[in-house]
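User: I'm preparing a small set of examples for a lab meeting where we compare how different chains pack in three dimensions. I only have the primary sequence for this one, and I'd like the structure in token form so I can line it up with the others. Please keep the answer compact; I'll paste it straight into my notes.
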Amino acid sequence: MARVVKMTDAAMTEDHLAAYERAITSYRSVADAAQSDPALALRLSLAYALAADSLSGLGAEQQDPVRAQQYARRALEQANAALMADPEDLGAAIARADGLRLRGMLQESQAQLSAAKNMPFFRTAEYFRVRALLRAAQSEGNLAKGYKSAEKAHDAEPEVIRYRLLLARAAMDAGDAPEAEAQLEAVLTEHPFHPAATSLRLSLIH
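Assistant: Understood. Below is the structure token output for the 206-residue chain.
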């Protein structure tokens, strides 16, 4: 099982919808064969959350709000399970804030993210990703409001594709086309057919 989890973790770094959905299937197969595992619940929560975001909003690979909400609900369920197992787990606290955001529970999401901020070493890329997206949700989807947080997520883990794409989306909403183009070019140079980056570039051109 450890080998499957490790391979699935690697596949998640491709950061596009099909990779997230394959990861969900893989993680669930391991979870079904194991006892309750908070670490697996946390992995599933992230995969569901990223898949949900890939199905709605600016730069989405597909527009499927029904499936997005199904994934959002599952992301929150898995985050709740992880946090219940360990209330002091930073990753679980951040994941729950993300799940609440995806479910449209913005006040609850903000409260959960504030609680995560009081935990040690909270300044992770995931914390800033969720903060950027929450600020966008609080501003009718305008990711320019989360531009600084998107920059911090990227600065924390600059080689991770999803943080490059987040920064590109924030830059587009802020009218900073050169920054958006730079981030998309960096992704597409290494992954020429990356679906999310390709979709965003088409949005930028048009």
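A couple of notes for your slides: Residues 5 and 130 are 24 Å apart (CA to CA). DSSP finds eleven helices and no strands in the chain.

User: Perfect, thanks.
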